[in-house]
Amino acid sequence: MFLSKIKRKALKLADGLELVDFSFGLPYTYVLVKGSEGKALGVAMTLPEEIQRYSNSVEEPSLKAFIERVDSLNAIERTLGLAAINAVSQYHIDLSSAKWIDAVELLDNDIKTVAIIGNMPPIVKALEDKGYNLYVFERNPRLWDRDTLSDALEYWLLPEADAVIASATCLVNGTLDMLNNRAKNARVFLLTGPTGQLLPNFLNGTCVTHIAAMKVVDIEKALLGLKLGSFKGFEKGNRKYVVEVP
User: Exposure pattern of 145-177 as b/e (b: 16+ CB <10 Å)?
Assistant: First the structure.
């Protein structure tokens, strides 16, 4: 499982970092860490449809305790674990070679068919306007529209895609392994959204070619937005970036 592999890498990088704050909530679960170079905030989107009557097995919260449970079958533990790994990643990430662009700007005219994993209306609209043939997959029925396909069809249709733009929530629901297996023909595989704050080298050996995420540049503003349950409030403290996976 992919999450088990990045867990081992993240645990090594967590040495010397202190857990400052955390919260499991909507719209994002967050973990705040501090080290000698300052603070870093990591988030993971909370998926209400994945949450059942779970109880968290962490009795003494710590950064490493959260990371250890990122590959748990318990969705609460998995979400907190990914937020913790993202916090560690954001503390260590080097964005000197990052592109400060929107995700859709990566696609060129040679790409004809794009698979979108997770119905993301702004991205769908932008790609429609550019004339791409789209497959839009979504697991949550509440987010379906007349052009949305069930995620059950990903296994069948992904091999046809020249490019894949996947919501980084595929890390939370554990489907990246399957996407990696079925999207072998994609020349571009972009992991997008705040949940994709991973270090790029964590994705070595996968078909992911780029990550489009958000760097929290104003931690206090972003935290206030998260505590108030506001997407827009959180995003006001961030800056979008795109990095290549080496």
Answer: eeebbebeebeeebeebbbbbbbbbbbbbbbbe
Cα Rg, the chain, nearest whole Å: 17
pLDDT digits (tens, 9 = 90+) for 153-171: 999 999 999 999 999 999 9
Q: Which amino acid is at 184?
A: K
Instruction: State the sign of the Cα–Cα–Cα–Cα dihedral 226, 86, 172, 160.
Output: positive
Domains and CATH numbers, the chain: 2-92 (3.30.390.100), 103-217+240-244 (3.40.50.11590)
Residue 141 token pair: 């029925």
Instruction: Tell me, yes or no, if the pTM score tops 0.90.
Output: yes
Runs of H (alpha helix) within the chain: 2-13, 63-68, 75-92, 121-129, 154-157, 169-172, 176-182, 219-227, 231-235
Rounded (10°) CA dihedral 175, 187, 210, 189: -20
DSSP string, 36-105: TTEEEEEEEE--GGG--S-----SS--HHHHHHTTT-SSHHHHHHHHHHHHHHHHHH---TT-B-S-GGG
